[in-house]
Automatic annotation (TrEMBL):
The keyword Iron-sulfur applies. InterPro entries: Cbr1-like_FAD-bd_dom, FAD-bd_FR_type, Flavoprot_Pyr_Nucl_cyt_Rdtase, FNR_nucleotide-bd, MRET, OxRdtase_FAD/NAD-bd, Riboflavin_synthase-like_b-brl. Its cofactor is FAD. One of its GO terms (molecular function) is oxidoreductase activity. This is Putative oxidoreductase. PANTHER family: NADH OXIDOREDUCTASE HCR, PROTEIN RFBI. Keywords: 2Fe-2S, Iron, Iron-sulfur, Metal-binding. It comes from Rhodococcus wratislaviensis NBRC 100605. It comes from the Bacteria. Residues 11-116 form the FAD-binding FR-type domain.
Length: 255
């Protein structure tokens, strides 16, 4: 049994309450769950959510955490973002029906590979490469940096279809106190962006807005499978060490 599966096996389910939610885009919703006995998590990890129907039928889905855990008077608060899939079994409920005060089961945190913290960085700069909703765990790293008052240089290259699909738009476009040293470039695949004409991410983009390979940055790439494979290949072609590239992928479709 792999360490990932073993970690899932020993984790227990906890009851969480939805305390806040808001639309991030027309098809994505941010959820804030309060979990009284949450053990804490690291930036980049994810959780399983479990829904149980009146007939006892259960179904589970995994979602990346968007921020460091913050303790509130009622417990720990976790933020995640759910992208609505029109014919999905779970996401339409979470985005359209799930309301403040409703309960859900949560299990985690899960994943120990795709994580970042200031104490593990060794001072190396960080390059975040996101495709679509793959920006969620990378946003947790940006927020972890801010939360810890860390000054590690960060660069985020964020590729998505159109401006209307951008998650965390206000926060990324108007960074607040503590985000000095975080540089963000947003690229669109289906409409022109201020940086360049529409198109998929390429080596020119990563060379222009990423870190040079001789800086030995820690690279985190997250998004749909095709995007992640191509972005990792491009980073290797630019001279980045395979040991410095960590990837997280999901689903068959790309931005």
């Amino acid at each position: 049994m792999t360490s990932e599966l073993l970690g899932r096996a020993v984790l227990s389910w906890r009851v969480a309450e939805l305390v806040e939610s808001w639309p991030e885009t027309a098809s994505a919703r941010a959820l804030v769950l309060e979990v009284p006995d949450w053990p804490g998590h690291r930036a980049g990890q994810h959780v399983d959510l479990r829904l149980t129907g009146p007939d006892g039928y259960t179904t589970e889905r995994s979602y990346s955490l968007a921020s460091p855990a913050e303790r509130s008077p009622g417990g720990w608060r976790l933020q995640l973002v759910v992208q609505r899939v029109a014919d999905g079994e779970v996401s339409p409920y979470l985005t359209d029906t799930f309301a403040a005060g409703n309960l859900i089961e949560v299990r985690g945190p899960i994943g120990g590979w795709f994580v970042w913290s200031p104490r593990e960085g060794g001072g190396a700069p960080v390059l975040l490469v996101a495709g679509g909703s793959g920006v969620v765990p990378l946003m947790s790293m940006i927020r972890e940096r801010r939360f810890r008052h860390d000054r590690t240089p960060f660069r985020l290259v964020y590729s998505l279809r159109t401006r209307a699909d951008e998650l965390f738009a206000d926060e990324l476009n108007r960074p607040g106190s503590g985000d000095g040293g975080v540089e963000t470039v947003v690229l669109h695949t289906r409409e022109d962006s201020p940086r360049r004409p529409a198109g998929r991410i390429g080596a020119v983009d990563l060379a222009a807005w990423g870190w040079p390979a001789d800086f030995a940055p820690r690279c985190f790439v997250c998004g749909p499978t095709g995007f992640v494979e191509e972005a990792a290949r491009l980073l290797l072609s630019l001279g980045h060490s395979p040991d410095d590239i960590k990837t997280e992928r999901f689903g068959p479709s790309g931005p």
